[in-house]
Amino acid sequence: MSRLRQWLPWLLIIAAGLILPAVLPPFRLNLLGRFLSLGIVALGIDLIWGFTGMLSLGQGIFFALGGYAIGMYLQLKSLAPGQLPEFFGLYGVQELPAFWKPFGSPLFTFFCIWVLPALVAGVLGYLVFRNRIKGVYFSILTQASLLVFFNFFNGQQKLINGTNGLKTDTARIFGQLVGSDGMQRWLFWVTLLLVVASWLLCRWLTRGRFGDALIAIRDDEPRLRFTGYNPTAYKTVVFAIAGALAGVSGALYTVQSGIISPQFMAVPFSIEMVIWVAVGGRGTLIGAVLGAVLINYAKSLVSEQLPETWLFIQGGLFLLVVTALPDGLVGWWRQGGPRHLQAMVGWPPLAPTYPSLDLDPAVQAEKQDLQGGGS
């Protein structure tokens, strides 16, 4: 039984990967692929917030950098030799800018998707952490950085099409349109695989000595520093890893949504990422993925019927987590939430230590006899 329980999540993931593409309509499968890709950036936020205690409100920077990397590659890939992306003609640009040229290489783009966000996060993190900036000041600083990047990318009409962003759905990979149903099915499988790989990476990081150091930073950083550790190095590394995860997430989301624009660097989107993790359960990893998928699916379903109500629902969810579920849905489940809910509605809870006795028909009959005799 214990071995079955150990393998059950993996069997469910494999079954989901095989069954969902066959039963879901292409539109719904595309949405699920997008939301799973958002689970990767949520894992990075859980790593730096749930385990290390650093609340970043600027993960949209690294998410968009990964998206722009794959967007530039796909723009160049859809052109004949010597041609320029269409938007350059609107602004009188006659020659491909120098920084675009390396993105004609798939290998360079592959590394740029995660190395560039990791480098930016690492440099930003080192400059912040070496000055021992933390807590609310760290959150404000990351949000200020987000605004700087947003305004910069928004104003670069001639270089990256500014506000309009870069479209990717008309490019071709392996002879298929990126926006076609067949390619989107492959992208769903790739996303599912990368979500599992990212979760395993984060789980490995948080189970060993590195994970112990992260938790020590969250719980009592001065004591960790006093024992001879250098928290700056740990915080810089974990912030860079979270940046790399955000870049991968941004690239996957871009090829499934068909566009990358500076809106992904806007403040509300980065705050939404934090809400996903808070609702799912910070410090649990799986809660971050579940929060990202469930909230975005709920957002999609509500927006199809009552689009003006979603912001109120999202605000209510955040208030519910802050006031009643500080450990999120996964934390509530692990702390016996279903049993408490069962007791609230008046159902007698099963004994948690001897479930087989409660399910035994003879024991149930004896209980009923005793209850009948007592009455």
Describe this structure in words.
With 375 residues, the protein is mainly α. The protein is built from 17 helices and 4 strands. The strands form 2 sheets. It has a two-stranded antiparallel ribbon with strand order 1-4. The chain is globular, with a radius of gyration of 24 Å. The model has no long low-confidence stretch (mean pLDDT 87).
Summarize the structure.
With 375 residues, the protein is an all-alpha fold.
| Beta-strand share of residues | under 5%
Distance between the termini: 39 Å
Biggest sheet strand order reads 1-4
Radius of gyration using CA atoms only: 24 Å
Number of helices: 17
* Shape call: globular
Secondary-structure class: mainly alpha
Beta strands, count = 4
Mean pLDDT: 87
SSE topology string:
HHHHHHHEEEHHHEHHHHHHH
The residue ranges in which pLDDT falls below 50 over 5 or more consecutive positions are none
> In percent, how helical is the residue content?
over 70%
How would you characterize the largest beta sheet?
A: 2 strands, antiparallel
Jot down its keywords.
two-stranded antiparallel sheet; 375 residues; 17 helices; globular; mainly alpha
Lay out the secondary structure.
Blueprint: H1 2-23, H2 26-51, H3 60-77, H4 86-90, H5 106-129, H6 136-154, H7 157-160, E1 166-167, E2 172-173, E3 176-177, H8 181-207, H9 209-226, H10 231-257, E4 259-260, H11 267-280, H12 286-305, H13 310-323, H14 328-334, H15 337-344, H16 355-359, H17 361-374
Antiparallel strand pairs: 1-4, 2-3
